[in-house]
Amino acid sequence: MKSVMSNKFIITLYVLPALILILLLIYIPIVLTGYYGLMDWNGIGKMKFIGLENYIELVQDKKFWQSTWHSLLLGIFSTVSLVGYLILSLILASKIKGANFLRKIYLIPMLLSSVAIGQLWAKIFDPTNGMINRLLIMLGVDNPPLWLADSNIVLFALFIPIVWQYAGFYIIIFYAALKNVPEELIEAAKIDGANPIQIAYKIKIPLITGVIKVMVILAIVGSLKYFDLIFVLTGGGPNGASEVMASYMYTEAFSKYNFGYGSAIGFGLLVICLIMTWLIQKLLSSKDDVQF
């Protein structure tokens, strides 16, 4: 009995530092964010308790819901892009020549900071000297688009560097999952006359369904809280056309010094992320999934 108790005590000692870190870095900030959302506060002076006024204003705020819609659009774009990542991973996992080199190429954007990527793509999207518009002019386009200044296309333009930035992350995870598919199943399918497309559709993809579900959740939830690259490239402009929830929270808290309302936006962002995660899990769940 004493040995069992001592083992539990030792296990608790090992786990306790991680639990303390999680408490300090995740749960306490969440509680404080919700608490600050109840205050009228400029971040410096004395806080004034105003109850649910910030949250009521948040529900009625058209700019917040517009930024939420923009974040959801990025989530939809990111989910669709998973198809391309998966196809590239299937190609890389099929033992083509140069697969190792291509994997390293796809990982290069992950080595760069979001600020560096933003500066790079700002030059590429430059309406006068940018690489894209120069190419379009060479192809005979008289009036190439103003990628980051046109409210109708700015979100689509932002999606291009986002796809480029995270390609390596998703491809390497899909690739690792595909390499764990038993080779015996693939060889048996080849003997039965299956072609590469049939092998991918009938064997490989069904066996990595769990990984695909996780990637969908990461793509959508990650898009909902996306901030840095959009802030560097557009700052939420023009006229709020690329404003997302995280950038709107930053604007209210750090540009307008309305920390109470900014905290309410942050707490709203958390709630929406949790709801979306729950919905995605429900939509993607199947009878074969283990229930806890």
What does this structure look like?
The protein is built from 13 helices and two strands, in the order αββαααααααααααα. It is an all-alpha fold and 292 residues long. The protein is globular, with a radius of gyration of 24 Å. The mean pLDDT is 87.
Helix and strand layout, with pairings?
Layout: H1 2-36, E1 39-40, E2 48-49, H2 53-60, H3 62-92, H4 99-107, H5 114-124, H6 131-138, H7 154-179, H8 183-191, H9 196-207, H10 209-224, H11 228-233, H12 245-255, H13 259-284
Antiparallel strand pairs: 1-2
Helix pairs in contact: 1-13, 3-7, 3-10, 4-7, 8-9, 10-13, 12-13
Quick description:
By secondary structure, this protein is mainly alpha-helical. The chain has helices at 2-36, 53-60, 62-92, 99-107, 114-124, 131-138, 154-179, 183-191, 196-207, 209-224, 228-233, 245-255, 259-284, and strands at residues 39-40, 48-49.
